[in-house]
Amino acid sequence: MEPYAMLKKIVEAGNVVFFGGAGVSTESGIPDFRGGDGIYQQRQYGMSAEELVSSDTFWKNPGLFYRFYFDKMVYPEAKPNAAHRALAKMEQLDLCKAVITQNIDGLHQLAGSRRVLELHGSIHQNTCTQCHHQFTLSDVLKQQPNQPVCPLCGGLIKPDVVLYGEALDQSVMEAAVQAIISANTLIIGGTSLVVYPAAGLIRYFRGKNLVLINKAVTDYDDQADLVIHEPIGEVLGSIMQ
């Protein structure tokens, strides 16, 4: 059976969980992280990207952190692509039970998905480090290129994203594990599966169909029931038409 037809049949059986990475959003104009031209291949201000978006840099030099963050990590004009829209449609049809994402851009929710587990947090949620008041992305963007400060107490505002040196939210990880354990089909898309602990989630899958959709080969291709090396928006968009 042709791969797209096989994937369509698998999706129609329901009880799908989707686990995605940066490649899901590249078709929305957001660069990936670890590709040849990815964000993490760059050096600015004499530091690597990992150093610039680390907890250590945020606390020691928030101005430097925010210069890189606003320039390379935040894309407020980005819109959901065919992959985001297809997953939202799958949820509406009660075929997809959860979307687990490593992305921080919020495009799944913008497309209409509601059962979204954000492993690395979201740029759309921001918290004052002193009074803990919550702010939207629009609130902090108004203060760029300067580091955003709380208008209520003057405290530094921190994006609710997981920085290097910080642990993932345990409750989100546990929810992701439970979703994968309960799934009949796990579709993994737009991720090279090299970033842990998130990449380790695959070991919890006990269902029938493991599907990998990624333009590049991954170390898990030989374990999958179906592998498609095509852009994920093209793949999911086509089967949901």
Automatic annotation (TrEMBL):
Domain Deacetylase sirtuin-type: 1-241
Free-text cofactor note: Binds 1 zinc ion per subunit.
Catalytic activity: N(6)-acetyl-L-lysyl-[protein] + NAD(+) + H2O = 2''-O-acetyl-ADP-D-ribose + nicotinamide + L-lysyl-[protein]
Matching HAMAP family: Sirtuin_ClassU
GO cellular component, one term: cytoplasm
Active site location: 120
Key words of the record: Cytoplasm, Metal-binding, NAD, Transferase, Zinc
Originating species: Copranaerobaculum intestinale
Cofactors demanded by this protein: Zn(2+)
Superkingdom assignment: Bacteria
Binding site for Zn(2+): 128, 131, 150, 153
Any one GO molecular-function label of the UniProt entry: zinc ion binding
Gene: cobB
Role of this protein: NAD-dependent protein deacetylase which modulates the activities of several enzymes which are inactive in their acetylated form.
Binding site for nicotinamide: 33, 104-105
Binding residue positions for NAD(+): 22, 26, 33-34, 102, 104-105, 120, 191-192, 214, 232
Entry protein name: NAD-dependent protein deacetylase
Pfam families: SIR2 (PF02146)
Similarity comment text for this entry: Belongs to the sirtuin family. Class U subfamily.
Subcellular location field: Cytoplasm
EC assignment: 2.3.1.286
